[in-house]
Amino acid sequence: MNWYYVEAGKQAGPVDDAQLAELENSGRIQPLTLVWHEGMADWQPYHYVKPGVTAAAGPSLVATATAPAATQPAGIVCSECGRTFAADQVIRYGDRYVCAACKPVFFQRLQEGAPIAGRGAAGTATEADLLARDYEVDVGGSLSRGWEVFKSQPGPIIGASILVYLVMMAMNFIPYLSIILALVLTGPLMGGLWVFYVKHVRGQPAVLGDAFSGFGPRFWQLAMTQLVPGLVSFAFMALFGIMAALVIPGVAAARRAAGSNSAAHFAGMAVPLGIFLAVFALVMIYLTTCWVFALPLAGDKGLKFWNALELSRKVVSKHWWMTFWLMFVCGIVAMLGIFGCFIGILVTAPIAFASIAAHYEKVFGDLAPSQG
């Protein structure tokens, strides 16, 4: 008999009975590893269907089939992806329901001892747990989840997003105070919007007040979470200006002393200027990607601003290129709305935001909120 099994969240096999036993003895197949062979209706934990074990002898700690539809609600929310399914499309594990698409990853995490928190649960994972485990950046899955979240309640999502961005735009029209207001208020505004989107991703009730929840106890932590990257950016710009002021005049003077023409003068100044500008842009792209989840960590999980920045950086650094690719693709999706006479951006921008929020929830969702 040919068996297939889940390893590292992916399907492996086929192997015969003898090879399956060897994999069990070597520890590669654990009791909760999902396995399947032809004739089985669905994937099942290994200890429930291993050769020589009857269904009646299986331990009680297994994923059980859902009860008949008559005893279940019309729509059941998957504890992993948050989407709603019919009763016959999910399995039940304790007090959680998991859809077919999420089962391999769910049981793999369970097998590896990773904390399993239901959607909207407080979470039990520590920062050390997050740093010790790995994760996958699924760009397509995040976009799909973002679309599902948006189409579930497009009106409230568009309305809250417009209001937050209108407030941010209005700050720029206040004479003399616009720069100060932007430095202080952008963090709380965007932090609240993150909380609003994350609640939608989790399937929790989200109201307009959540989009402005940054104007509460977390105000200054959110303000600092946004302000510190801004100060870092300003420091790099100042350094760039100083270096340009020192290097470019010297290059120009050397060109003039050598009798170079005006075109050569321009080239002599443009080359170092271009190098400095490219280095500055690369550094800022790197840091912006590393700190992309700092605001939701401060607003949603209650981390202090420096802890939020550092945890985001350390976790993103594991898969920096794929995280950057996710942000890049979401940016393209958001900008596609411009081609719809700019009205389309009211749809594409929230979808992009929800997609990044979906990835945040996947990676940080079971992190225990800070008690500080």
Q: Report the major sheet.
A: 4 strands, antiparallel
Number of helices: 14
Low-confidence stretches: 54-75, 117-122
Helix content: 55-70%
The Cα radius of gyration reads: 26 Å
Structural class: alpha+beta
Shape: globular
Instruction: Give the neighbour order of strands across the main sheet.
Output: 2-1-3-4
How much beta, percentage-wise? Answer: 5-15%
Structurally, the number of domains stands at 2
How confident overall, as mean pLDDT?
78
The secondary-structure element order is EEHEEHEEEEEHHHHHHHHHHHH
Q: Give the number of DSSP strands.
A: 9
N- to C-terminal distance: 55 Å
Structure overview:
- With 372 residues, this protein is an alpha+beta fold.
- It has 2 domains: 119 residues, no CATH class; 226 residues, no CATH class.
- Helices cover 58% and strands 8% of the residues.
- It is built from 14 helices and 9 strands.
- The chain has a 4-stranded antiparallel beta sheet. A 3-stranded antiparallel beta sheet has the order 5-8-9, with no helix packed on it.
- Helix 9 runs antiparallel to helix 10, helix 9 crosses helix 12 and helix 13 runs antiparallel to helix 14.
- The chain is globular.
- About 8% of the residues have low confidence.
